[in-house]
Amino acid sequence: MIHYLLGILLFVIGLYGVLVKRNLFKIIIGLIIMEYATFLLFALVGFREHGTAPIQPGVAGKVFVDPLPQALVLTAIVIGLGTTALIAGLAVRIYEKYGTLDIRKIKKLKG
Known about the structure:
By secondary structure, the protein is mainly alpha-helical.
């Protein structure tokens, strides 16, 4: 149960970074923290106490962990890495164009 609470706490820390910070890179870091907290919570769904890896054929009566959430999280990590690279690239281009990363100043600029 404590693992779930820590995952939710990690998500709330990332949400704080997204909602309160005004620097684009700090917002991106907050999004990354939220993303990995979600991955942690998804991986915890498949966790079983004293479970073993489900790669042992012919073993009856043993408790196995669920491999599906782990596989989905692995796929989501790869997709998240691509989107994070895209967001960071856009932030760099915004900095090159406007000379600032403060979203309050970027909103005021037109063009």
